[in-house]
Every structure is written in C-alpha cells, then in structure tokens.
Amino acid sequence: MKLPVAAEDDSMMRRFDARSRNHIAMGPSLPEVQAHRALLQASAVVRVELCERFQEILPRELVPLVAHAMAVPDVSLHRDAAAQHLGLPRRTLHRRLIVAGWPAPRRFLNSLRLLVAAGLLDRGIPSLDHIAWYLGFSDGIALGKALRRLSGSTVSSLRAHGALSPCLARLRTVQTSAPTASPQ
Known about the structure:
Helix 2 (about 30-55) crosses helix 6 and helix 6 (about 105-120) runs antiparallel to helix 10 (about 165-175). It contains 10 helices and no strands. It is mainly alpha-helical. It has helices at about 5-25, 30-55, 65-70, 80-85, 90-100, 105-120, 130-135, 140-150, 155-160, 165-175.
C-alpha cells in the first residue's frame, strides 16, 4: 500500500507559508524564514520514512492512521479525529491498537510527533525551539523532556548517536511490554 505524500506536502507548504507570514509580521529575519523552510523540507523526508517504517510493523488497517498523523504533525491530533479519519469509533481504534500491542491512541499519536522530532534531529535541524514550534510544543525544553521520556536519553546524546532508531526501538519495547487486551 503506497502512502500519498505529495498532496500532503503541498497542503503543509501552504499552511507553513501562512504561518510564516504571521511570523514574518512579528519581524523574523530572512535566515529564520530559510531555517523554517529547511525544517519543512526535512520534515517531508522524515514523514515518508516513518510511514514506510510503520507500514512494515503496524497492522495494515492501522497504517492510514500513521499517514494521517504525518499529514498534520504540527498539531496535537486528537484521538477522536484520528478514529473519524479511519471511519472507526474511538473505542474500536483503541482496542485495535491495544490488541496489536501498541499504546492507546493518545499516547501513540503523541509518540508519532516525537518520532518526527527525532527524525528532524537526525536530519541536522539545529534548533530544538524551531522543531518544537513546528510540532506544536510550547518550547524546546518541553520537547526535550518529552524526547527524554520516550528515548531515555538526553537530546545531546540523541544528536550525537542518532535519534530516530532509538526512539522507535523504545516505542516498540514499550509496545511489546504493554499488557494486551483480549479481542471482544
């Protein structure tokens, strides 16, 4: 199943340009705007990579959840919206994730945002504050704490040794150690 990304990239570019115009009105310099554009381009690569990785490890009926979450990484995607996108009741989505051995929808969606952040760290985006702004975190400190909870490592350690693979491995470890619910 091939995941459509080009249309989402175009949509994200329009949203980014709108956000940039608002940001520019506050007076950022041209290098800041260029840094934000580089962030968006790196994000497109990270989102494709994550969709491909989850395609291999997530049940086929839940792969569109990752694709949808990757289309809107700058907002905290609510579990109701995710369930509605899949055409499922919220409880059914919850049950399917748990039965598949993954965290509950809210935690799973938040983990996806953190995986995007980890991928952006791997792509050399220098400012944690820019990544936090892009993903909808309050600041770089909040994002750093969230990454540390997911990965068990500091941001500087993640930058030095790679961030995406350890974060994904840690999510999968949590996934396999989580109690599973019996299907009803």
